[in-house]
Design a protein that fits this description.
There is one protein chain. By secondary structure, the chain is mainly alpha-helical. It has 2 domains: about 1-120, no CATH class; about 135-175, no CATH class. Helices cover about 45% and strands about 5% of the residues. The chain is built from 6 helices and 4 strands; from the N terminus they run E-E-H-H-H-H-H-E-E-H. It has helices at about 40-50, 60-70, 70-85, 95-110, 115-125, 160-175, and strands at about 1-5, 25-30, 145-150, 155.
Length: about 180
């Protein structure tokens, strides 16, 4: 399941003008342990993008976004937005999610991030990280080659121990090697 996660210190008394880009909303997979965004915070997010479309936002906002947004995080957020839009298709929230996706792409363009180059960077980093969420080495980028799952060819692991643990913790369900029930 995918959730919107709003990282902001805003309380109900704050205005969107006090927003800082370091508290920008990112979209993460629930596998990373993030919690769903509260409804009042999601309203702040929609308000932010509606009040400040990339085309007419002040240059200081463009500069802040460019400085704080890694292309890989931007791309991961875009993928998650698309996944949420797919799940919400036909529901009232679908239009809002499509609006967020378009706004995210527009802001990425203003930051000099295009989808193809961000995807290449994301794929490169993903191939250098252990797929096991509870890896003792943490979510670091490895310089050496990682073991690749023979079933799906997508998951990568530091060693055999991480591979076994990852299999037990959920990769078994998502791996293409096993036939669907």
């Amino acid at each position: 399941m995918v959730h919107l996660v709003l990282m902001t210190p805003l309380s109900p008394g704050h205005s969107v003008k006090q927003w800082r880009w370091e508290y920008l909303t990112y979209i993460y997979n629930s596998d990373s342990g993030c919690t769903p965004v509260e409804e009042r915070n999601s309203k702040l997010l929609f308000e932010l993008f509606r009040r400040h479309p990339a085309a007419s936002a002040p240059s200081r906002m463009h500069h802040g976004f460019r400085r704080r947004t890694k292309p890989t995080i931007w791309y991961m957020s875009l993928l998650a937005l698309r996944a949420v839009a797919y799940v919400a298709y036909g529901k009232p929230a679908h239009e809002d999610i499509i609006f967020l996706e378009r706004s995210w792409i527009e802001w990425g363009g203003k930051a000099g991030i295009d989808e193809q180059s961000a995807k290449l960077l994301y794929d490169g980093e993903r191939n250098r990280m252990c797929h096991n969420e509870s890896c003792p080495r943490g979510r670091i980028l490895h310089d050496r080659l990682l073991l690749v799952c023979r079933g799906c060819g997508q998951a990568r692991y530091c060693d055999r121990v991480c591979q076994k643990q990852g299999w037990k913790e959920g990769h078994r369900e998502s791996c293409r090697r096993l036939p669907a029930p």
